[in-house]
């Protein structure tokens, strides 16, 4: 979180959120992490202690001088609700400030229905009614472009949504702050709070699964682009020797995602006789695991394409590290033989040592990422969440 400079209402809520996400912390470490002066931290924490929000804990050794006192939260300061919208269901979790998932649920959902957003509002309203803690806000992750977290207008071809008024409709339905973003960006937000973003200020989060996505974090802030569509690397045109380029869900042909997304892998597996016409990706993975050379070749070829495409992104953005996530990492051992040589060979010599971290995956991570839009509001010095982030901070600061 270093490099961020919270001001105004960001300061008290930023300190509370930092203690919530990292646990007991010394004042000097708080100042360093949030880019604040020690005097400001002392003044603000004095008020938080007087209000019963923060308390002084045990002392720890310091580098010279008297031992530093740790500060911690007095009690829970609320939860965030996270919802990940897919083509057939909505996954919902409630998450505490430290990233702990308190509850998890899934609801059938038809995004093509005329009242889809009203349905989504009812799902979230029911989930909120079941919470036993104070709600800070709702984060929603969608597989598409979002104009801004604050307004939440969505274009999502895989859901059949065009200029969908997700944010306004849900705010009216649930009566709480609602932040909306691309689902991969939400994973990048979660990494910033709880994962690799604690160590690095510039990184990529790349997902492989139904689609191929990328969340871009530069200097501690998610880069969203002019229209909220940055990171759509699944739609990079890919050259192959195939005479006929496969169609992509975006309406174009020959996109990276059309080859190595879930549908593309399954199409190739069927064409090569690895699975039948009703076969699944699980069948492809079983075949590769059992030693089927043809199945392993499908993954290796996919890894090679991903490596070449990702190298181009590295040269454009120059991150410190890449994180790989998503449903597809279950088979990463079979992607890797194609990915590693292709990726390293395609990089400039100075970038060939770039670390690539593959993290374990659970379905809850999508929705937990959505909740991180809310939990990260106290660090939103770039103002991505606008009024909605301010409302979250006000709730947190009222602890």
UniProtKB/TrEMBL annotation:
Family classification: Belongs to the ROK (NagC/XylR) family.
Alphabetical list of SUPFAM superfamilies matching this protein: Actin-like ATPase domain (SSF53067), Winged helix' DNA-binding domain (SSF46785)
InterPro entries found in the cross-reference section: ATPase_NBD (IPR043129), ROK (IPR000600), ROK_cs (IPR049874), WH-like_DNA-bd_sf (IPR036388), WH_DNA-bd_sf (IPR036390)
Name this protein carries in UniProt: MarR family transcriptional regulator
Gene3D superfamilies (alphabetical): 3.30.420.40, Winged helix-like DNA-binding domain superfamily/Winged helix DNA-binding domain
């Amino acid at each position: 979180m270093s490099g961020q400079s919270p001001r105004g209402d960001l300061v008290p809520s930023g300190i509370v959120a930092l203690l919530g996400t990292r646990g007991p912390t010394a004042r000097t470490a708080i100042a360093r992490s949030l880019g604040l002066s020690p005097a400001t931290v002392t003044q603000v924490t004095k008020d938080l202690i007087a209000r019963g929000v923060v308390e002084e804990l045990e002392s720890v050794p310091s580098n010279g001088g008297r031992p530093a006192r740790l500060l911690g939260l007095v009690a829970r300061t609320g939860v965030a609700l996270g919802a990940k919208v897919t083509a057939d269901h909505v996954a919902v979790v409630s998450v505490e400030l430290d990233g702990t998932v308190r509850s998890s649920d899934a609801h059938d959902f038809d995004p093509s229905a005329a009242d889809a957003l009203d349905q989504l509002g009812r799902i979230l309203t029911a989930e909120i009614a079941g919470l036993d803690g104070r709600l800070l806000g709702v984060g929603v992750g969608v597989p598409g472009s979002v104009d801004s977290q604050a307004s939440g207008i969505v274009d999502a071809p895989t859901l059949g949504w065009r200029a969908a008024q997700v944010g306004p409709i849900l705010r009216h339905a649930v009566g709480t702050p609602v932040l909306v973003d691309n689902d991969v960006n939400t994973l990048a937000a979660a990494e910033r709070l709880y994962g690799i973003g604690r160590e690095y200020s510039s990184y990529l989060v790349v997902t492989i699964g139904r689609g191929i996505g990328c969340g871009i974090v530069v200097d501690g802030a998610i880069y969203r682009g002019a229209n909220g569509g940055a990171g759509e690397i699944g739609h990079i045109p890919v050259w192959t020797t195939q005479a006929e380029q496969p169609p992509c869900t975006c309406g174009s042909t020959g996109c990276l995602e059309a080859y190595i997304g879930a549908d593309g892998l399954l199409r190739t597996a069927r064409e090569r006789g690895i699975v039948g016409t009703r076969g699944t990706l699980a069948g492809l993975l079983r075949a590769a695991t059992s030693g089927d050379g043809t199945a392993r070749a499908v993954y290796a070829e996919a890894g090679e394409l991903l490596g070449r495409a990702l190298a181009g992104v590295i040269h454009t953005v120059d991150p410190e590290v890449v994180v790989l996530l998503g449903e597809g990492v279950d088979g990463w051992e079979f992607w890797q033989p194609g990915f590693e040589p292709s990726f390293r060979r395609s990089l400039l010599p100075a970038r060939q040592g770039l670390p690539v971290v593959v993290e374990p995956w659970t379905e809850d991570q999508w929705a937990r990422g959505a909740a991180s839009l809310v939990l990260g509001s106290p660090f939103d010095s770039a103002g991505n969440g606008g009024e909605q982030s301010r409302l979250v901070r006000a709730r947190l600061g009222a602890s």
